[in-house]
C-alpha cells in the first residue's frame, strides 16, 4: 500500500505539472554539449560528504549562491543529485507561494504591479525550493519584463546548467533513462525538448514512462525517467504513507 500511494502521489503531481508546462513559457538556451554518465548515488554521497573534496556539498552551495560560472557539469551533477542526501530534501516539496505565481503568470500581459508580485513570490518560492524549475522560468520571465537583464542571465545560467545535469544522466530511453529528484522535473525536460506529455505510466523498478504528442521531424513517442532514488527517500521519510 505504501508504494502504491507514493506512486499515486507522483502521478498526481506530474499531471498537474504537465498542465502547467503545456502553457506558454520563456524560451531557454540550449546547454553546452556534455557526456552521458550514469548516476552513482553511492559515489555522490561520498564526495558531497567529504570536506576535502571539491564537491563537498557546502562548497557547492556557496558556489551556487555566489553565482559561480566556472562550475563543471560534474559539479552541477553532484549539486543536483547530492541534494537527495540533505536533511531538508523532500521529493514532493512545494512552496506555499508557488500557486500564487502560477495564477498571476498565466494572466498575461502583466501590469507593473503584477510583475512586482510575480518577482516577489517567485523569489520566495525559490528560497523555499531552489530546484523548482517552473518557478525559475517564471522568475526569468519577470526579470526580463522588468529589464533586469543581468539578473535574468544569472538565473538562466542556473536553469540551463540544471537541465544539462539531468540530461547528462541518460538518454531518456528504457536502457538509459534520465534520473530526476522531483516529479515535475520529468515534464520540465519534456517541455525543454519541445514536446507535450499526453500519458504517464509508472513501471517496475522505479521507472516512469511519459508518452508525448507527435512532433513533425521528431521520431520520439515517449521518454523514460528513473525515479528510484526519489521513491527510496520518500519511503524513508514518509513511512506511514
Rounded mean pLDDT is 87
**Helix-strand pattern:** HHHHHHHHEHEEEH
* Share of helical residues: 40-55%
The coarse overall form would be: globular
Main β sheet profile? 4 strands, mixed
> Rg, please?
18 Å
Provide the domain count: 1
Oligomer: single chain
Count of extended strands: 4
Q: Widest sheet: strand order? A: 1-4-3-2
Cα separation of the termini = 8 Å
Q: Which structural class is indicated by helix and strand composition?
A: alpha+beta
* Strand content bin: 5-15%
Q: What does this protein look like?
A:
- The protein is an alpha+beta fold and 241 residues long.
- It has helices spanning 2-21, 41-48, 57-65, 73-82, 98-105, 112-128, 133-145, 149-167, 184-192, 228-237, and strands at residues 178-179, 197-203, 207-212, 222-226.
- Strand 2 (197-203) and strand 3 (207-212) form a beta hairpin.
- Helix 1 (2-21) runs parallel beside helix 9 (184-192), helix 4 (73-82) crosses helix 8 (149-167) and helix 5 packs antiparallel against helix 6 (112-128).
- The radius of gyration is 18 Å and the shape is globular.
Amino acid at each position: 500500500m505504501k508504494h502504491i500511494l507514493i506512486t499515486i502521489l507522483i502521478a498526481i503531481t506530474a499531471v498537474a505539472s504537465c498542465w502547467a508546462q503545456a502553457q506558454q513559457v520563456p524560451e531557454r538556451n540550449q546547454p553546452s554539449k556534455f557526456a552521458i554518465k550514469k548516476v552513482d548515488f553511492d559515489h555522490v554521497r561520498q564526495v558531497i560528504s567529504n570536506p576535502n573534496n571539491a564537491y563537498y556539498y557546502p562548497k557547492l552551495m556557496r558556489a551556487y549562491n555566489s553565482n559561480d560560472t566556472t562550475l563543471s557539469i560534474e559539479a552541477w551533477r553532484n549539486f543536483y543529485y547530492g541534494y537527495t542526501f540533505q536533511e531538508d530534501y523532500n521529493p514532493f516539496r512545494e512552496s506555499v507561494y508557488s500557486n500564487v505565481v502560477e495564477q498571476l503568470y498565466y494572466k498575461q500581459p502583466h501590469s507593473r504591479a503584477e510583475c512586482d508580485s510575480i518577482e516577489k513570490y517567485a523569489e520566495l518560492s525559490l528560497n523555499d525550493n531552489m530546484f523548482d524549475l517552473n518557478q525559475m522560468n517564471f522568475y526569468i520571465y519577470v526579470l526580463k519584463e522588468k529589464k533586469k537583464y543581468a539578473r535574468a542571465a544569472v538565473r538562466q545560467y542556473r536553469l540551463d546548467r540544471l537541465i544539462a545535469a539531468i540530461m547528462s544522466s541518460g538518454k531518456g530511453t528504457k536502457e538509459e533513462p534520465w534520473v530526476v529528484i522531483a516529479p515535475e522535473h520529468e515534464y520540465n525536460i519534456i517541455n525543454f525538448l519541445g514536446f507535450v506529455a499526453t500519458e504517464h505510466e509508472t513501471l517496475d523498478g522505479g521507472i516512469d514512462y511519459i508518452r508525448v504528442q507527435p512532433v513533425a521531424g521528431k521520431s520520439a513517442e515517449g521518454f523514460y525517467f528513473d525515479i528510484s532514488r526519489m521513491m527510496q527517500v520518500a519511503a524513508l521519510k514518509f513511512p506511514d504513507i
